[in-house]
Amino acid sequence: MPHLSSASHNKSLLRFHIRQNRVRQHRLLQGSQVAQGLLASGVPLIEGLAPSSVLAAFLPLNTEPPILPLLHTAYATGLQVIVPVVKAQRQLAWVEWTPQGTTSTNSLGIAEPTGKDLGAEAFLQADLRLIPALAVASDGARLGQGGGFYDLLTQPLSTPARARTYAVIFDHELLDALPAESHDFRAQAVLTPSGVHKLTSSPLS
Question: Which pTM value belongs to this model?
Answer without folding.
Answer: 0.90
